[in-house]
Specification:
The complex is a heterotrimer of chains A (about 475), B (about 500) and C (about 100). Chain A is an alpha+beta fold and about 475 residues long. Chain A is about 40% helix and about 20% strand. In chain A, strands 1, 3, 7, 8, 9, 12, 13, 14, 15 and 16 form a ten-stranded mixed beta sheet that branches. A three-stranded antiparallel beta sheet of chain A has the order 6-5-17, with no helix packed on it. A two-stranded antiparallel ribbon of chain A has the order 4-18. The longest helix of chain A has 20 residues. The mean pLDDT of chain A is about 90. Chain C is flat, with a radius of gyration of 23 Å. Chain C starts with 11 loop residues before the first helix and ends with a strand. The chains are: A alpha+beta (about 475), B alpha/beta (about 500), C alpha+beta (about 100). Chains B and C meet through helix 9, helix 10, helix 11, helix 12 and helix 13 of B and helix 1, helix 2 and strand 3 of C. Strand 2 of chain A pairs parallel with strand 1 of chain C, so a sheet runs across the interface.
C-alpha cells in the first residue's frame, strides 16, 4: 500500500463501551454478569420489553458516566435527557433503543473533550449513555441461516458511547486512540476491556476530502486497524481508477477480512428521535461533579508522569507500561518486591509484551504473578542463571505457570560452578580450536570466539565469569609454555 | 334483582367487615348477575370467577378469625384489559395480545390485592385504548346499559358499563385523551382521571405515555375517593410516579362548596356541542351556584388547538410504544416460517392490529419522521406549553374549571365508526386535561331524551381532594340528576 | 409569525414508505382507504399552523420531576416464566426468522 499523506485521511470513531463494573443493567435490576451463562437467563419483563413495563435509571451508571466525561475533559450537561432511537431489529426488545441525542432538543451527557495520544489531541464530539441490544447468532452464516437465534441476556446492559471528531489520520492512530481510551476506562475502574464484546467500535473514514464511508460490525480493537487498512486500500484503488466514493455504510467481515456494502433499505433508516416519555430529565449539579472528581482514581497520563518521576523510567517506556492498566499494575506490584524498576520495566516491555502479542492474549490471562518475575530477577542477580537463560526460564514460566525455582532446577539451569568440569570443557575447546587458541594469546578479542564455543559446548550452562577466568588461566599457561 | 347491586362499594366493604355480608355470597351473586346481563351489555373480555371466589372465601376466613382486612375488603372490581394481571389473559382487546398472559402484575393490581379487593375480570375496551366508543374492540363492542343500541363511550367502555349495570362495584379504567371520563359520561357514572404521575403506570400497557393515567370508575363519589386512595402511592418501578405521601381522599368528602370559584370554559360550548348537552351542563352549574359556589365564564384561547395537538402527540408516542409488538417475544406470530424477519414483522403487525391502531401508528410515524418532526410533533409540544400556561392563568382566578365532558349525547353503535375524524372530535373537551396533566372528573348531571349527560370538572395538579369535594356535594344534593339510583 | 409552506398531504408512495418504517404490511385496498383518511386527518391537523409558537419551549414532560434513580442492586426475576411465553424458541434461544 503506497503512503497517503496524513492530511488526506480523516477517521472518526464511534466507540461503545459497556460499564462492566455495574452489578445491574441500565434500566432494570437484572444481573449484568451474563458472560458464559445460558441464553435468556439474565432477563426480566423490563429488559425484554414486555407490555406495560417501564425503565428506571441506574444511579451508579450515571456516576460512572460522569467520571468518564471528567476524564475526557468533556463539558457535562446541566440537564440531560434520554431520547428514543426508533428502528426495528430482532435484537431490539422494544424496537427502539433508549439512548441520547444532540439535536432536536436533545441533550446528551457531555459534549466536547479530548484524548491525547503522544503529541496529538483527538477531539471528542459527545459522550452519551444508552442500552445495549441483545445478541444474534445463526445456524451457519448470516446469509445462509434459515432462522436467527436471539439471546437477550445482553439487552439493556449499560453502554457509554464516545464519538470522536474526524481527527484521526491513520489506522495505527485509531488503534492507539482505542488503546488509550481503554486504558483510561480501566484505570477509572468502570470498564474491563478484556471481557469479550465489552468494547465495540464503528469507524467513519473519508479519503482526500471525499464522502464519508461508515464501517460497522467491528468486533474488537484489533480488527479496527485491519478494517481501516483494508478500506483505505479499497478506496485508493477506486480513486486511482477515477471512481468517486459515495457516502455509504459498509459491513466488516472479520473472516474474509473485507468490507461489504450494505446496499439494503437500512440506509433509508429514519430513527425518528424524540424524548423518552418514561424517563425524567437528569439535573447534574456542579457539586456532584466536584465530588466525583475528588474521588477519581489515577489516570494513565498522570500515572505515566509519576512513573517517570518516581521510578526514573524513560518517557517512552513509561508510556508503554501505562497503555494497559493490568501491565502498569503488574509493574508497580513488582516494584514493591524488587528494588530495580528499570530491570522490571525492561523485562515487561521486552519479553512479556512480545509473548502477549504472539499468543494474542490479555495480561490478565497470564498465570503469572509479580512475585514470580521478581524471583526470576533475583536468580539473575545471584548469578544462578544468566540473562540468556532467564529468557527461556521466563518463556517456560509464561507457558506453564511454573515457579522459576522449579524451572531452574528442572532444566538444570543452575550454573555449573564446578571448576573441574569447566577446566575439562575449556581444555576440549582449546584442543578443537588450536588456531583460535594461538590468536587468543595475542589478541584479547579472540577470547570471545573461544567463549562462544565453550558456551555452545556446555549449552550455556557454565558460569561465564568462571569460564572467563579459567580460559585466561589456561591461555596464560599455554603462552608461557 | 340482586340485593347488592344497589349498595355502594364502601357500604359493602363495611358490611363485609362487620360480618353482615359474606364476601363469597356477594361475589357469587355478582357473577350470577353478570351471567344474566353480559349477553346484552358485553362489558367483560375475561372473567376470573374461580380466582375471585377463592379470594372471597379467604377474606371470609380472615374476618372470622378477626384478622385485619384491607380498605377494599371483598369489593368486586372490574379492571380494564390494558392493565396487566399476573396469570390472567391481558389482551388490550387486540388480536396481537389475544393469548398474552403476563407473568407480572401491574402495580395498581398489587395495591388492590393488598387491600383485599377482589378482581372480577378484565373489562372490554377499544383496541390498545385507541377510541372513544369501545367499537374498536377485537372482541366486539360493549353496549350502553342505558340504551343497548348505543355506545358506552371509550376507550374504557367495559369498565363504565359494568359499573352502570351493577356487574361490578368498582372499576379501573385508563385515560389518555378522555378514556375514563367519556364512558363515565355516556354511562352515567363517575369517572376520575388523576393528576399525571399520581397513579403508577407500571403494568399499564402503554398507548401514549406522557398523557395517560389509570383512574377509578364508580357510581358513588365516595367509592371513587376510596378506590383512588388505594391506588395512589409512589412506585419506584415508574420513573414518572410522584413521590408524595399517600392520601386518604375520603376525608375531603364534605358537603360544603361555599365560595368555591368556578370558571366555565367558553370553548367547551362551541360549535359541535349539542344544545341539550349545553343546557344540561348549564343547569348543573346553576345548581352548584345554589349550593354556594360562584361562577364566571372564561376563555382559554389556545384550546382550539388542543385536539390536533393531542392527537399528534398521542399518535407519535403510540407509534413508538407499539413497535415492540412484533411476534418475537410474545404476541401474535404468523404461522408461515419462510419469510425474512422484516416481512414476518410486517405481517404479524398487519394481522395483529385493527384498522384504527394501524392508522394511528402510521400517522404517528409520519409525525415523527425526518422533515416533519418540527412541523408536527415539536409544534404540538409547544402548543401544549401554551395550553398549560392558559390553565395556570385560569387557576389563579378559579378553583375549579367546568364544562361538559362530551359535546354530544351517546351515539348509536356504528354511527361514527367509518369516519375516524368524526370519532376524534368527540374528545375535544377531554383532551386538555391530559395535555396539561391536571386531574379531571366526570359526574352524571342529568338526562336528555333519556340519554346521560356528564359534567366535567378540572382542578390544579394534586388537588383531587377539592375535585371530590365538589363532586360529592353535587351528588349528595341532587341524587336523581347524579344517578345514585339503579339500572335494572 | 412566519408562514411556512407546509406539505398538507401525504402521497401513496410516502404512505408505503412510512408503513415500511413502521413494519406494517398494508394491502392495496387498505392503501386506498388510508390515503383518503390520513389526508383528511392531516388537513385537520394543519390547524396548528395558525398558532405562533416562536420562542415557546416544548412540554415534553408535564411534571416537574427530575433525577429519579434506582440503586445498583440485583433483584431476582423469573426468566423461565418470561421465556416460555415466546411463540417460537430453539433450545434456550428465542427463535426469530432469517435475517437475509
Amino acid at each position: 500500500m503506497s503512503k497517503i499523506k496524513s492530511a488526506e485521511i480523516k477517521i472518526g470513531l464511534e466507540v461503545h463501551c459497556q460499564l462492566t463494573n455495574l452489578k445491574t443493567k441500565l434500566f432494570c435490576s437484572c444481573s449484568s454478569d451474563y458472560r458464559g451463562k445460558e441464553p435468556n437467563t439474565h432477563i426480566c419483563p423490563i429488559c425484554m420489553g414486555m407490555p406495560g413495563t417501564l425503565p428506571v435509571l441506574n444511579e451508579k451508571a450515571l456516576e460512572d458516566a460522569i467520571m468518564v466525561a471528567i476524564a475526557l475533559n468533556s463539558e457535562i450537561s446541566e440537564r440531560m435527557l434520554f431520547f428514543r432511537k426508533n428502528y426495528f431489529y430482532p435484537d431490539m426488545p422494544k424496537n427502539f433503543q433508549i439512548s441520547q441525542y444532540d439535536k432536536a432538543g436533545g441533550v446528551p451527557l457531555a459534549l466536547g473533550g479530548c484524548i491525547q495520544i503522544n503529541d496529538k489531541r483527538i477531539r471528542i464530539r459527545r459522550i452519551q449513555l444508552e442500552e445495549d441490544p441483545g445478541k444474534l447468532s445463526y445456524d451457519g452464516t448470516i446469509e445462509s441461516s434459515t432462522y436467527t437465534l436471539v439471546d437477550y441476556n445482553r439487552a439493556g446492559i449499560a453502554l457509554i458511547e464516545i464519538v470522536t471528531e474526524p481527527d484521526i489520520e491513520s489506522p495505527k492512530e485509531a488503534r492507539l486512540f482505542l488503546e488509550k481510551l481503554r486504558s483510561i476506562l480501566e484505570h477509572l475502574g468502570i470498564s474491563d476491556g478484556s471481557l469479550e464484546g465489552s468494547m465495540r467500535c464503528d469507524a467513519n473514514i473519508s479519503l482526500k476530502g471525499g464522502k464519508r464511508v461508515e464501517i460497522k460490525n467491528i468486533s474488537s480493537f484489533k480488527e479496527v486497524e485491519r478494517a481501516l487498512n483494508f478500506e483505505i486500500t479499497r478506496q485508493k484503488s477506486l480513486i486511482e481508477r477515477g471512481i468517486t466514493i459515495g457516502q455509504e455504510t459498509r459491513h466488516w467481515d472479520e473472516v474474509r477480512r473485507i468490507t461489504i456494502s450494505l446496499r439494503t433499505k437500512e440506509e433509508e433508516q429514519d430513527y425518528r428521535y424524540f424524548p423518552e416519555p418514561d424517563l425524567v430529565p437528569v439535573i447534574i449539579q456542579k457539586d456532584q461533579i466536584k465530588e466525583i472528581e475528588q474521588r477519581m482514581p489515577e489516570l494513565p497520563d498522570e500515572r505515566r508522569r509519576r512513573f517517570i518521576e518516581q521510578y526514573h523510567l524513560l518517557p517512552q517506556n513509561a508510556e508503554i507500561l501505562t497503555r494497559s492498566k493490568d501491565m502498569a499494575d503488574f509493574f508497580e506490584e513488582c516494584t514493591k518486591l524488587y528494588e530495580k524498576p528499570k530491570e522490571i520495566s525492561n523485562w515487561l516491555i521486552g519479553e512479556f509484551l512480545s509473548y502477549l502479542h504472539d499468543k494474542g492474549i490479555e495480561m490478565n490471562e497470564l498465570r503469572l504473578a509479580p512475585r514470580h518475575l521478581v524471583d526470576m530477577l533475583r536468580f539473575i542477580d545471584e548469578g544462578t542463571i544468566s540473562r540468556k537463560m532467564a529468557k527461556s526460564v521466563l518463556q517456560e514460566m509464561l507457558l506453564t505457570g511454573k515457579m522459576p525455582d522449579i524451572i531452574v532446577k528442572e532444566k538444570k539451569f543452575e550454573k555449573i560452578l564446578d571448576r573441574e568440569y569447566v577446566r575439562n570443557m575449556v581444555e576440549r575447546v582449546l584442543k578443537e580450536n588450536p588456531q583460535a587458541a594461538k590468536d587468543a594469546i595475542i589478541d584479547e578479542k579472540a577470547i570471545n570466539y573461544l567463549m562462544g564455543q565453550l558456551m555452545k559446548a556446555t549449552e550455556g550452562k557454565i558460569d561465564p565469569k568462571l569460564a572467563g577466568e579459567i580460559i585466561r588461566e589456561r591461555l596464560s599457561e599455554l603462552a608461557i609454555s | 334483582m340482586s340485593r347488592y347491586a344497589e349498595l355502594p362499594a364502601y357500604e359493602i366493604v363495611e358490611r363485609i367487615k362487620a360480618h353482615e355480608i359474606k364476601a363469597e355470597d356477594y361475589i357469587a351473586s355478582l357473577y350470577e348477575r353478570i351471567k344474566r346481563i353480559e349477553k346484552d351489555v358485553h362489558a367483560y373480555i375475561t372473567l376470573t370467577e374461580d380466582l375471585a371466589l377463592k379470594k372471597a372465601r379467604e377474606i371470609d376466613k380472615k374476618i372470622e378469625k378477626g384478622e385485619k382486612t384491607g380498605r377494599l375488603c371483598g369489593a368486586g372490581i372490574a379492571i380494564k384489559d390494558n392493565i396487566c394481571m399476573k396469570g390472567v389473559r391481558t389482551t388490550c382487546a387486540s388480536p396481537m395480545l389475544e393469548k398474552f398472559i403476563p407473568p407480572y402484575n401491574a402495580t395498581v393490581v398489587k395495591r388492590i390485592e393488598d387491600e383485599d379487593g377482589i378482581i372480577l375480570g378484565k373489562a372490554n375496551m377499544d383496541e390498545f385504548a385507541m377510541g372513544s366508543s369501545t367499537e374498536y374492540s377485537y372482541f366486539g363492542t360493549t353496549h350502553n346499559p342505558w340504551d343497548l343500541k348505543r355506545v358506552p363511550g371509550g376507550s374504557s367502555g367495559g369498565s363504565a358499563a359494568a359499573i352502570a349495570s351493577s356487574t361490578a362495584s368498582l372499576a379501573l379504567g385508563s385515560d389518555t385523551g378522555g378514556s375514563i371520563r367519556c364512558p363515565a359520561s355516556f354511562c352515567l357514572v363517575v369517572g376520575l382521571k388523576p393528576t399525571y404521575g399520581l397513579v403508577s403506570r407500571f403494568g399499564l400497557i402503554a398507548y401514549a405515555n406522557s398523557l395517560e393515567q389509570i383512574g377509578p370508575i364508580t357510581k358513588d363519589v365516595r367509592d371513587c375517593a376510596l378506590l383512588l386512595s388505594c391506588i395512589t402511592s409512589h412506585d419506584p418501578l415508574d420513573s414518572t410516579s410522584v413521590d408524595k405521601p399517600q392520601e386518604d381522599y375520603t376525608k375531603y368528602l364534605m358537603d360544603d362548596i361555599n365560595g368555591i370559584r368556578i370558571g366555565v370554559i367558553k370553548e367547551f360550548f362551541g360549535e359541535g356541542t349539542q344544545d341539550s348537552v349545553a343546557k344540561g351542563v348549564w343547569d348543573a352549574i346553576l345548581k352548584l351556584e345554589e349550593l354556594g359556589a360562584n361562577y364566571q365564564e372564561i376563555s382559554l384561547k389556545n384550546l382550539h388547538y388542543a385536539l390536533p395537538s393531542y392527537y399528534i402527540i398521542a399518535m407519535s408516542e403510540a407509534s413508538s410504544n407499539l413497535a415492540r409488538y412484533d411476534g418475537l417475544r410474545y404476541g401474535y406470530r404468523i404461522p408461515d416460517k419462510s419469510y425474512d424477519w422484516s416481512t414476518v414483522y410486517s405481517k404479524d403487525r398487519r394481522f395483529g392490529f385493527g384498522f384504527e391502531v394501524k392508522r394511528r401508528i402510521i400517522l404517528g410515524t409520519f409525525a415523527l419522521s425526518a422533515g416533519y418532526y418540527n412541523e408536527y410533533y415539536l409544534k404540538a409540544q409547544k402548543i401544549r406549553t401554551l395550553i398549560k400556561r392558559d390553565f395556570e392563568m385560569a387557576f389563579k382566578r378559579f378553583d375549579v374549571l367546568i364544562g361538559p365532558t362530551m359535546p354530544i349525547l351517546p351515539f348509536k353503535i356504528g354511527e361514527k365508526v367509518q369516519d375516524p375524524l368524526e370519532m376524534y372530535m368527540c374528545d375535544v373537551d377531554t383532551v386538555p386535561a391530559n395535555l396539561v396533566g391536571i386531574p379531571s372528573i366526570s359526574i352524571p348531571c342529568g338526562f336528555s331524551l333519556g340519554l346521560p349527560i356528564g359534567l366535567q370538572m378540572m382542578v390544579p395538579p394534586f388537588r383531587e381532594g377539592l375535585l371530590l369535594r365538589v363532586a360529592f356535594s353535587f351528588q349528595r344534593n341532587f341524587p336523581t340528576l347524579a344517578r345514585l339510583g339503579n339500572y335494572e | 409569525m412566519i408562514l411556512v409552506e407546509r406539505k398538507k398531504s401525504i402521497s401513496k408512495k410516502e404512505i408505503e414508505h412510512i408503513a415500511w418504517l413502521a413494519r406494517i404490511e398494508i394491502s392495496k385496498k387498505e392503501l386506498e382507504l388510508f390515503s383518503k383518511q390520513l389526508n383528511d386527518i392531516l388537513a385537520y391537523f394543519a390547524k396548528i399552523d395558525e398558532v405562533d409558537t416562536e420562542n415557546i419551549p416544548p412540554s415534553y414532560h408535564v411534571l416537574d420531576l427530575v433525577n429519579v434513580f434506582r440503586k445498583d442492586n440485583v433483584k431476582p426475576s423469573l426468566p423461565e416464566e418470561i421465556f416460555q411465553i415466546a411463540p417460537q424458541t430453539k433450545e434456550k434461544f428465542v427463535k426469530a426468522p432469517r435475517m437475509a
